[in-house]
Specification:
CATH class of the largest domain: Mainly Beta
Number of helices: 12
Number of strands: 21
Bound molecules: ligand LLP
Radius of gyration: 24 Å
Length: 463
Amino acid sequence: MSRSAHPAGPRHADVLPEGHYTAPPADLNALDPKVWSHTVTRTADGVVSVGGIEVTRLAEEFGTPAYFLDEADFRERARAWRTAFGHDADVFYAGKAFLSRAVVRWLHEEGLNLDVCSGGELATALSAGMPADRIAFHGNNKSETEIRAAIEAGVGRIVLDSFQEIVRVSHIAQSLGKRQRVQIRVTVGVEAHTHEFIATAHEDQKFGIALADGQAAEAVRRALNLDGLELVGIHSHIGSQIFDMAGFEVAARRVVGLLAAVRDEHGVELPEIDLGGGLGIAYTSEDDPREPHEIAKALSEIVTRECEAARLSTPRISVEPGRAIVGPTAFTLYEVGTIKPLDGLRTYVSVDGGMSDNIRTALYDAEYSVALVSRTSDADPMLVRVVGKHCESGDIVVKDAFLPSDVAPGDLIAVPATGAYCRSMASNYNHALRPPVVAVQDGAARVIVRRETEEDLLRLDVG
Ligand code: LLP
């Protein structure tokens, strides 16, 4: 990303320090629709609103920090994925991005399926009425208890991640007198262009069974020969926050190659392939994500073409978007507490949350945007680092961004695109109370995950 050589504001030197930022935006009061959820707007009095409610009112009623989720936008994005993939494909929302019972109900209503990866996610899904046969169960080390719970519930598929698990699931299914539909997760050997911790298709990592050295073919052999399993397909997930479709195309080609090899060896055409999640979203104005219909078209074209070439009938495709559905639909609202200007460097703006409600900046060096939302300002842009209230200097929410230079304690600022992997990865570090998630729609706001209380913390502490 380019560096700016513009002065950042009155307190700063002519040349800005190292960082990931471009020149300050022309209008700091503008809200880029790329990074804000669909119903976010600035009202005539300068206050930002979502779902028709001003953030000042939301802060009064629900406190800060808090995540505000634009329900209409969530449903719209879920529907866009569903529509783009049509009736010949399935969309499994990846619950790890953010899961709550309200979200499960919305997904059910919008016709999506659900990918879960723990007993906790499974329990949440079932308790909110998601039909078990629309749930896929993932994970590289599912416990026997989790596997049993999933099979007893009747989940639509279990994605087998290792040789041990093939045997484990077969045994448990047989002990329950069931035949479980399964897919095998393979690593296709693609280097996805994303952070190392969230890239999952190269071979040197914990997930899946490698295609390259014949391991995946061996896994298929074993799964086809074990009682209690009905092998229905192959699964690949190449990573997360990816913009380039090339990795998905290579993955699709290699998975179809395995289907052809399975047909040649066993005379069986596996009817499903799952190409995972991983589509990137815009965290800053620099990011240019692909639309669901472009993704659906690219994937279905490549699978159809490869299958025709291999003389296979086209399998049913499924995908598992998490971030791309929920990520853009929420922002985190914070109150500014303290301000520390460092001449010639930057200004630290401390908020009432931090790495306990958004660990992504510390963990992945993730980039975010920020805006002053309780009022407008004509002040000059000032280079800021938005930091939290935790006991370490890596407690950064937004590493490099611009805010008006008159930002002051008591102002509300908001960080957009925090719907995915923020509440779901939130912690109680420093005994912070995890913020609520509030769904907002058509002038009404309701808590869907409540704020933790000190009683919640003390209830767990039974020593
Ligand atoms: N399917 C499987 C098998 C996955 O492992 C994942 C994400 C998804 C689907 C959904 O991927 P998405 O569409 O949300 O990118 N905590 C990291 C992301 C970890 C993703 C883990 N697996 C982050 O905050 O960036």
